[in-house]
């Protein structure tokens, strides 16, 4: 089985040819010295670390899983050492704030490293991924004491973070949570309650584990307005910054899961844990939401990482596996990569993974603009695009990631079903990305109910206008003609359904009934758009990579984009066929 | 968690109202005494056995798995006892030949029992399912001595069967297999070779295990024409029918799989095992193919069984889980079954499972007609429909079964990802049904390359004519108007693509490029057809079941059938976008 090959040449094409990464960096104060060459050299190193250290632990970590003994979690063999090597090499602080020990690199570089880590070891990637999420919430909402105490060691990766939101009866609906926080009187609180599904809730990497916990203050109102955010470390910190006594929290059990077995997903009992308020009382959900764009982009990237890795392995297998005769019957056995249906599966995954990466880079560029661009209007516009694209990236990348994992597994036939080849692990691991960090149904509802109505639809219109502009630019390139025309048609369907949804805003169930199909339609159009941009660039060159991009764009146009026909029809049919039936009859 | 409810009222509706099961049985010699009442009373009993005995072993069997110790396989706790109870209650011989201890019930009853078993315990169901496949091959091809020796105890279930086809380098392409059979001179052969992925290759249920093995005789030509079929029992049989010495075969290892952990999938070493030829030398593949219609229908039914069970559990959960507010914002928390997107997932699975069952019954009726109808023309026509529908049932039911398992798991959110709720097991178990017994890609190729060109397309035309006839009948029923109109449009797309494929027969890659999408399109149209039949019948009644069927038919028409738009466009785009790219660039 071929090992994973970091997609550095694809990234070079995207940063150097498709998106003007260097030009953007020059315009962003603090990133002036960053360019594609630097990014690629960093990604080369990251790729080596992923292939050399993390990939070899992926299957053994899945087989061994985590253990809870005497209240302490053990991760699989090799994970603590790999994590320490990861921190020592500086990978944890890549995009962290330089004020607190970070290297201050742009989001674009971060997500490309995240993709590689997700390709080789999804379970491992959650440790730094969640830490970054916690860092984001602390950076934006905590007071300066908390920041000074916790951020440097979290950004360096010496300490990790955990997000404690979900309870048994409060998942999607966090307004139902019951964990309590009682003020002690010295500025600290005692937190009591049980949380479930807590990734990285405990581990054996050493250092400290910083829990961000949603809880209610005494007398807080019901629902989401009564929720506050608290920080509680596993070990209390002495005045000198040293680790002190254990806080009153414990791992109740480890969840037994379908996949990500090397990730300790904990039931956490907070038995009067000492914590501090992060942000304002009653604004806990708000504090969580400010970090969600980054976290949801990260989860979308996980979907991309799995798609890339699974497609690579299936392609490698299809080149080597000899089975059956050529379509014209003249040769056999042939490598199965010659069979049209195998190509269909491989090209579907390839066209989705390439487009995901391109759209991810564009979205991360918008995040970098929103964070640093000197012009406020540019920042605001970019921020709007990030808000619009976030649910799309999270849900569509993970749906396509799962679908690609399944199709890639199928390429291996029976060998895909046995554990030895690792394909079934991709499927099991990918499945969680569609569920956590807000299920993909919740993402779809976020898109249609919150993002689409923003500025009365003008935000979405601005995005569509970007696409139209690139369609016009590409219109003169015959080599990109198929994808350009197909994307224009698909965009028309997206605009039709967008008008339909904006017009139906008064009908309560209409948005929810359309949500999932609309998000998929939106994503396919956005993918068409980045394929137009890639094809327009590829049409100017003749390298194997350029020819591959053009061919994949054409495949995407002819075989994948037609899904937009189905989605448009399903959305326009309206909510009645879902809602008219009584619940008892379902 | 609600336990599985055998869908007896749905079956009663189908046998009694939609299909004239009683009328058909009266016309089939040997089945004159069978009617829907009898079938339903048998299914009631089967349902009790499934819920009482098999369902409780499903999750424990998955957790425990099988073991290989000192060369012997142990199945999970409770499986040997459950299997013996299954045999003692007479379930193994339900549709078996009465000449050899079977009860001679029609295929329709058999597949409905199979569905229930597949819903509660897919791993268990493979033991009797594979035995029936072996029985079928022996019945049709073995000499009378072999039949007399093996069939009675295999049909009673006392002995089980195993099918040994696949080798490490010969999966889809059985022509590459290398297992050898050398004649001893006394009519027996010595079989040498290693087979992989052998379901039920060994177990601890007692009795004997009858292996049907594909192997090559000395001097046999290369490829499929050199393959013969042999029967080799685990224990040789004495003249008095008693079990004698162990044959020279052993379990090399157990495959470690994504799912069906309670099913011992073996690597089998045949080290000179004594066996006997079944059928003619060099006609082994032919002997296997004659039983494949039944086996592939059985695997399709497994997909249906998982879809039914997963949808039921998700629906039960959605009724009880309180989360979020009603669409109009006035009430909360509400049961999530009120949320449109949850309904979309539940109704998609429900519409697919109901249609699968209806189409399965229709196909099984054709098998019963083909086996027993006094009129040869009727038998021949039915046989043609079975040939046409077999790849569709196998591939589409299992694809939809997997998709329904995934969507049902999604309804449970994070709870769907942990093992405790059993939803993730449905996904892992369902996944194999898309792979074994010929991958779904192979089924699709069978449909477009073998079945569609039969009689120059006239076989398919006869099937389309059946659909058109029922569309005309339903045209006068306003309540069935939505599904009737949508199915008529979808049928038009199927006819267009059928003409396209028949016209493109000379282009070698065209069929393969279209295959998977065409099979899905074909299945959706066939589902539309049975929904028209169900809706037409439901329109005449006012029971909750009738209203449920009408509502589900409308949902299927508006939200699922539009997929045919996408599939038509993808097929018509042709093979170029798949085949023009060099393999090296993929």
TrEMBL record, chains A, B:
Acyl-CoA oxidase/dehydrogenase middle domain sequence ranges: 162-271
InterPro entries found in the cross-reference section: Acyl-CoA_dh-like_C_dom, Acyl-CoA_Oxase/DH_mid-dom, Acyl-CoA_Oxase/DH_mid-dom_sf, AcylCo_DH-like_C, AcylCo_DH/oxidase_C, AcylCoA_DH/ox_N, AcylCoA_DH/ox_N_sf, AcylCoA_DH/oxidase_NM_dom_sf
Taxonomy of the source species: Bacteria, Pseudomonadati, Pseudomonadota, Alphaproteobacteria, Sphingomonadales
Functional summary from the UniProt entry: Involved in the assimilation of dimethylsulphoniopropionate (DMSP), an important compound in the fixation of carbon in marine phytoplankton, by mediating the conversion of 3-(methylthio)propanoyl-CoA (MMPA-CoA) to 3-(methylthio)acryloyl-CoA (MTA-CoA).
Start and end residues of each Acyl-CoA dehydrogenase/oxidase C-terminal domain: 282-448
Domain of life: Bacteria
EC number: 1.3.99.41
Family classification: Belongs to the acyl-CoA dehydrogenase family.
Catalytic activity: 3-(methylsulfanyl)propanoyl-CoA + oxidized [electron-transfer flavoprotein] + H(+) = 3-(methylsulfanyl)acryloyl-CoA + reduced [electron-transfer flavoprotein]
Domain Acetyl-CoA dehydrogenase-like C-terminal: 464-581
Key words of the record: FAD, Flavoprotein, Oxidoreductase
Protein name: 3-methylmercaptopropionyl-CoA dehydrogenase
Needed cofactors: FAD
GO molecular function, a single term: oxidoreductase activity, acting on the CH-CH group of donors
Organism: Sphingobium terrigena
Domain Acyl-CoA dehydrogenase/oxidase N-terminal: 79-158
């Amino acid at each position: 089985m071929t090992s994973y090959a970091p997609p550095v040449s694809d990234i070079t094409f995207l940063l150097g040819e498709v998106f003007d990464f260097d030009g953007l960096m020059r315009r962003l104060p603090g990133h002036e010295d960053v360019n594609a060459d630097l990014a690629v050299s960093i990604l080369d190193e990251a790729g080596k670390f992923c292939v050399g250290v993390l990939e070899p632990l992926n299957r053994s970590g899945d087989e061994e899983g985590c253990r809870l003994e005497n209240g302490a979690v053990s991760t699989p063999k090799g994970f603590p050492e790999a994590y320490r090597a990861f921190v020592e090499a500086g990978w944890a602080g890549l995009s962290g704030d330089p004020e607190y020990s970070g290297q201050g690199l742009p989001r674009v570089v971060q997500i490309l490293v995240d993709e590689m880590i997700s390709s080789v070891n999804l379970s491992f990637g959650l440790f730094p991924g969640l830490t970054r999420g916690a860092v984001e919430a602390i950076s934006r909402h905590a007071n300066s004491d908390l920041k000074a105490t916790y951020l440097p060691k979290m950004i360096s990766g010496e300490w990790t973070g955990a997000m404690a939101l979900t309870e048994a009866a409060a998942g999607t609906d966090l307004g139902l949570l019951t964990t309590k926080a009682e003020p002690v009187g010295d500025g600290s609180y005692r937190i009591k309650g049980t949380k479930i599904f807590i990734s990285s809730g405990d581990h054996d990497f050493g250092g400290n584990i910083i829990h961000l916990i949603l809880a209610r203050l005494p007398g807080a109102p019901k629902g989401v307005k009564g929720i506050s955010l608290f920080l509680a470390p596993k070990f209390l910190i002495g005045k000198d910054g040293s680790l002190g006594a254990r806080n009153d929290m414990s791992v109740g059990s480890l969840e037994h899961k379908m996949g990500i077995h090397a990730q300790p997903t904990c039931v956490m009992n907070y038995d009067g844990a000492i914590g501090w308020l992060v942000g304002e009382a009653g604004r806990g959900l708000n504090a969580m939401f400010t970090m969600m764009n980054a976290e949801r982009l990260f989860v979308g990237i996980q979907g991309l990482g799995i798609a890339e890795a699974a497609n690579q392995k299936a392609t490698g297998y299809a080149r080597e596996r000899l089975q059956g005769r050529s379509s014209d019957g003249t040769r056999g056995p042939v490598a199965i990569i010659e069979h049209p249906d195998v190509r269909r599966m491989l090209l579907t995954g390839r066209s989705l993974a390439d487009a995901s990466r391109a759209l991810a880079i564009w979205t991360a560029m918008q995040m970098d603009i929103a964070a640093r661009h000197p012009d406020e209007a540019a920042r605001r516009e970019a921020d709007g695009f990030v808000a619009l694209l976030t649910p799309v990236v999270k849900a569509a990348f993970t749906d396509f990631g799962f679908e690609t994992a399944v199709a890639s597994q199928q390429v291996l036939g029976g060998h895909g079903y046995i554990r030895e080849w690792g394909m079934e692990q991709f499927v099991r691991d990918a499945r969680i990305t569609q569920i956590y960090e807000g299920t993909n149904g919740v993402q779809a509802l976020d898109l249609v109910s919150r993002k689409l109505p923003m500025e009365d639809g003008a935000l979405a219109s601005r995005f569509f206008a970007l696409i139209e502009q690139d369609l016009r630019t590409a219109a003169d390139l015959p080599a990109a003609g198929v994808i350009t025309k197909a994307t224009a048609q698909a965009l028309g369907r997206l605009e039709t359904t967008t008008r339909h949804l904006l017009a139906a805003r008064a009908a309560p169930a209409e948005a929810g009934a359309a949500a999932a199909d609309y998000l998929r339609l939106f994503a396919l159009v956005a993918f068409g758009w980045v394929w137009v941009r890639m094809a327009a660039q590829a049409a100017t060159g003749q390298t194997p990579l350029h020819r591959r991009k053009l061919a994949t764009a054409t495949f995407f146009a002819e075989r994948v984009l037609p899904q937009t026909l189905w989605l448009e029809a399903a959305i326009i049919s309206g909510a009645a066929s879902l809602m008219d039936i009584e619940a008892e009859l379902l």
